[in-house]
Amino acid sequence: MQLSVGTRLGPYEIVFPLGAGGMGEVYRARDTQLNRGVAIKVLPQLFALDHERLTRFTREAQTLAALNHLNIAQIYGLEAAASTGTTRALVLELVDGEDLSALIARGPVPLHEALPIARQIAVDFEIAADGTRFLLHLEERTTEPPVHLLLNWRARQGGQQ
Questions:
Q1: Which domains, and CATH codes, for the chain?
Q2: DSSP character for 64?
């Protein structure tokens, strides 16, 4: 379901698209009640009617809601289609940054930039090993790498503030 600028999902107003993946499209939106930017991941209508995919989408939301970590975007809620009540949008903390794949696509990453990023990824994978504090987002894709790693100032500083 492609949304146009100005479309409303509950209190959220679509500002512009951020990207798309195997489980949906992501938009920058504005929370009109709390006056803040958010990211909205919209499950395609076809998937929203598929019980298995809807279950996976809901499980992703529940997993994110159970996690609290500096490197994980917080979940703010789920939005449902007014007519069916079927969950179709995940509302998340808006994290500004660059997808790691875009950085790599520009060419070789200088060692002084690559090492802090690699260190942070390794730390996050170590946290993932305990299964309680980190979620690595995997998507079903055939043409792109199946992992979304968003780089922002925390990753570029090796996770230090």
A1: 8-93 (3.30.200.20), 98-156 (no CATH)
A2: H
